[in-house]
Amino acid sequence: MSTVYISPTGDDTTGDGSLGNPWLSVSKALASTIANDIIVALAGTYTTASWSDLLIISSARIIQGAGANLTIFDAGGVTRTWTIQAAVTVKDMTFTDAKGAFFASMFEMDTASCDLGFQNCVFDGVSGGSTSAIIGRTGTLAGNGGSATINFCLFRNCNLSGTVRNILGASNQGTVSFEMTNCTVYTNTADASTASVVGRNNAGGSNGVLTGLFRNNIIFNENGTNKSWYLDTDLDSYTGSENNLVRGYSNVPTMTNTISTDPLFVDSANGNFNLRPTSPAIGNGIIT
Q1: Which residues share a beta bridge with 144?
Q2: Residue 273 contacts by C-beta under 8 Å, 6 or more apart in sequence?
Q3: What phi, psi does 26 have (nearest 5°)?
Q4: For residue 30, which phi and psi values (nearest 5 degrees)?
């Protein structure tokens, strides 16, 4: 297992992937490493020069930032899709102002061998493409899309451009599973394209199978008008889901110990999602 480095000031031609002479782009790092290697994205803001569209990750990697407030991938409003075909862990970084390619999720769960994990990441104003999700499997694709685990992540004002708009989603023919733990999903916009939480990514089909495990999450829509928890079709199973705070959503599934009061963030309008001492969410989770 080797560790290589990229940086917004790196160079794919003259760099060698070392800490002192990093590459510029994720694609260069992927092409220059093998399965199970670690790609470290050093602190800074990565633009489209570092973050190529339609990136395919076909063997296991860990892609690690310097911290969600330090390593920022900013697409400037253009399409960016990572197609995941293996065990891939992404952690400690922010993705902002990006959307999935046409008919593709931003993080596309492409095969049954997809084992996608996110840890300590922020998704700020991102979206899937048409009939897709931020994390999921595109519209009408058949086959198993594998699994995704999302831990300690923040989804903030994620608006989807397509006709079916989900944060987590699967095709109407494929099979995927999700596990979301200790995450915050927040919106305060009345825009009709604001993301719902889960669903199939293509209306009119019902052969896909979606399973989800939700624990210790705060899912809060603050715009004053309830949004549906799901669009098109809900998950097939919530077995084991427990201890979530869900407010501002209709069609909320039955999960153990769900509360629906204001979570009392310190200053959500300015991005401070810490909880006030009197928050009803404090003490309602479980140790995971």
Answers
A1: 175
A2: 154, 184, 186, 218, 265, 266
A3: -65, -40
A4: -65, -45
